[in-house]
Design goal:
By secondary structure, the protein is mostly helical. It is 69% helix and 2% strand. The structure holds adenosine-5'-diphosphate and magnesium ion.
Amino acid sequence: MIDNKKMCEIIEAMAEKIQAQKDFLTELDNEIGDGDHGINMARGFGAVKEKLPGMADKDIGAILKEVGMTLVSTVGGASGPLYGTAFMKAGMACKGMAEIDGQQFLTAFSAAVAGIKQRGKSEEGEKTMLDALCPAERAIAEALNEGATLKEALGKAVDAAEDGLVHTKDIIATKGRASYLGERSLGHQDPGATSSLLLLQVIEAAL
Ligand code: ADP
Ligand code: MG
């Protein structure tokens, strides 16, 4: 179960993790992109963190929606609209809810992933954040189906996202800036898949 207070804690911890990993994310993006992923994410989540005090009394849907809108409006790169859409779609799935259980989390997570695919015109296997998020979504669904708690399910999601992230080294980018490199994108892990793993780790740790 995640209530609105816990959700605000998770968002704050996400902002801290992104800030702490800013240089690492930027280094990864230097290799196959334009070297701004950490900067973009830190700017976006920095703005989100400033808005957190005003979110404390809102329901989960409203919190996630505001996070998404803030990311869209403060992040210049591709990742801003994509993560922003993800949080907004998750927010719509949790509209008016003061707390969410495992199945509701999964519904929101699936809506987020579907939103990224739609907005990015992308699919799993193109060396993007989806290569961490899609395996994570499947892992959560499978674990909940087998009766796992939400925390246990998130543990499986983190494992699946880690495997997915490692796999991004073995595939050629066909979406985003890294796609300009073609085969030269091989051997490098995707920055967006890396930030997605970090965010999942934060959720798991907070539960
Ligand atoms: P930009 O590419 O505009 O510089 P960032 O560096 O912040 O933006 O983000 C790059 C990340 O965004 C990539 O590593 C990838 O995971 C993700 N990304 C880019 N394009 C897409 C897309 N069409 N669908 C899903 N994810 C994408
Ligand atoms: Mg970039």
